Amino acid sequence: MPKQYGQGCPVAKSLEFLGERWTLLIVRDLFTGPKKFQDLLGSLKGVAPGVLSSRLKVLEDHGIAVRRLYSDHPPRAEYALTPKGVELRPVVRALAIWGTRYLSHDRVLVHNRCEQPIEMAYYCPSCDERLAADEASFRPTHTRAKNGRRRPRRVSQAAR
Amino acid sequence: MPKQYGQGCPVAKSLEFLGERWTLLIVRDLFTGPKKFQDLLGSLKGVAPGVLSSRLKVLEDHGIAVRRLYSDHPPRAEYALTPKGVELRPVVRALAIWGTRYLSHDRVLVHNRCEQPIEMAYYCPSCDERLAADEASFRPTHTRAKNGRRRPRRVSQAAR
Fold first, then answer.
1. CATH node for A10-86
2. Of the given ranges (A141-145, B59-63, B79-83, B92-96), which has the lowest mean pLDDT?
3. What is the value of pTM for the model shown?
4. Which of residues 128-157 of A touch B (CB under 8 A)?
5. Could you say which DSSP state residue B149 is in?
6. Residue A79's closest CA among A67, A64, A70?
7. pLDDT per residue as tens digits for the range B16-52
8. Which stretches does DSSP call E strand in A33-131?
9. Intervals of CATH 1.10.10.10 along chain B
10. What are the Cα distances from residue B105, in Å, to A82, A142, B109?
11. How many Å lie between the alpha carbon of A57 and the closest alpha carbon of chain B?
């Protein structure tokens, strides 16, 4: 059972369960396609089956991964990321870029064409533009109408 | 003492210590400027002083944060991120974006100008270009010369 931080911050709320040992490595391994329990047990050397099972359950409960049967006779299941899980890719990529720069000195993530190291940056899909840190900020998702009622912020469909 | 995963993967190596409970929240709090031990104890409700102290020690050992005296009489110290620590910003940002989208329904990270939600994307500083996932790949940092000797990959200074 993940421990709570008791903070409203989205980073803290994410880390309450993503921060548990093994969890982001399971997500990493699912980026390359659905995996059977045994596959994960093999790629994550040292994970106890009970721990793997509990982490997968938490990922299912949060709608990050789904367990699905790919054969009825005999019954065989595999785990796959949901779209919500696939959206964790920037988190894992950012860790990979930082880790290759500072911890693994044997490889580096590069742009295929120019072969130079790459970074991760803020990007506005609506304007198709890279942004500096000071060009982005947190805004409430709801605004108050003149009558005091809470109403959703207008966000174009294209950007969703 | 962080537990090892025994994997060469840069994500696993990063998570061995960054994945410990509280660590990324300490880094998050240091992004807004240097903090005293007491400040962190106040912003991270529920952290035990011994745990905070041990996490800060690990961050210092990895060159992510430094402890520095800002007054000799009486001696007072504060913790600040190093450039290596500041480079963890994309990791925390990616968690913030994911968390605001899926866990905190009260706010969203938007582009100041158009007010639409933003994402994080691969970016090549050398080409000043946003990249799709398949335009980047891991390459060895060293290549083999004809005589079999290991030699560093050529990487332009601009991109370092």
1. 1.10.10.10
2. A141-145
3. 0.85
4. 129-131, 133, 135-142, 153, 155-156
5. -
6. A67
7. 999 999 999 999 999 999 999 999 999 999 999 999 9
8. 65-71, 76-81, 107-111, 119-124, 129-131
9. 10-86
10. 19, 9, 11
11. 18
